[in-house]
Amino acid sequence: MRLILAAATAAFLLSAAPAAAQSVSIADPAVFRAKLQAMGYAPGPLTKKDSVPEFEIEVDGFGTTLRMQGCDKGKACKYITLVASYSDILNAPAPWIQQMNDEFDLLRVGTNDSGQLYMFGAYVIEGLPERELRRILDFWAADTNEIGQEAISKGYTTQK
User: Fold this and answer.
1) Pairing of strands 108-111, 79-90
2) Quick check: 2 pLDDT over 80?
3) Residue 6 has pLDDT above 50, yes or no
4) Of 150, 155, 121, 154, whose CA–CA distance to 138 is shortest?
5) Nearest to 158 by CA among 89, 110, 93
6) With contact defined as beta carbons under 8 Å apart, do 86 and 148 qualify?
7) Which of 18, 46, 123, 126 is deepest in the core (most CB within 10 A)?
8) Are 98 and 90 in contact (CB under 8 A)?
9) What confidence tens digit (pLDDT) does each residue in 63-78 have?
10) 72 and 109 Cβ atoms separated by less than 8 Å
11) Residue 48: which pLDDT band, with cuts at 50, 70 and 90?
12) How far is CA 117 from the centre of its chain?
């Protein structure tokens, strides 16, 4: 009877355990780009393949440049950066930018050479489960939206 109970318990626990999560690798940028495509994102063509590989990707409707950094001749990359700018938010006041940097402590918010507001985030993702990469991208989408809405509510957009 104990053997049957033990077997039944083991079978239950094994069936309740989640399937092994697939991990993410950015060692090969082309494989990583394909992984994002398989996850339902639509990455653009891979460029700068021999140095700092990058591609454009929409994350929840917001255009973002995804760069693989710390690479050795375009391979064995160590981390990613996400960069996005708002073409309709020009010359936001420095105190507000500092407030956004204080509130969004995992991002860097600033203005580029054209005065456009930008966001930047760096993430070590090698070996993470896919669900964690998706969570990072979900947070990126939420933060880009929230910062954009904050800028609109403050009247910092060029379009009224």
Assistant:
1) unpaired
2) no
3) no
4) 121
5) 89
6) yes
7) 123
8) no
9) 999 999 999 999 999 9
10) no
11) very high
12) 18
Task: Give the SS3 label for residue 103.
Answer: helix
Domain boundaries, the chain: 22-154
Tell whether the model's pLDDT for residue 81 goes beyond 90.
yes
* CA-based radius of gyration for the chain: 21
The span from the CA of 126 to the CA of 44, in Å, is 21
Q: Regarding predicted confidence, which is higher, 142 or 3?
A: 142
Q: Which CATH class is domain 22-154?
A: alpha beta
Q: Using DSSP, state whether 23 is helix, strand or coil.
A: strand
pTM score of the predicted model: 0.82
Cα–Cα dist 139/87, whole Å? 21
For residue 62, what pLDDT band results from cuts at 50, 70 and 90?
Answer: confident
Is residue 135 within 8 A of residue 64, CB to CB? The reply is: no
- Assess whether pLDDT exceeds 50 at residue 86: yes
Nearest to 61, CA basis, from 134, 145, 156, 121: 145
Tell me which H or E stretch contains 85: strand 79-90
114: exposed, middle or buried (C-beta count within 10 Å: 0-12, 13-18, 19+)?
exposed
Run of H or E residues at 118: strand 116-123
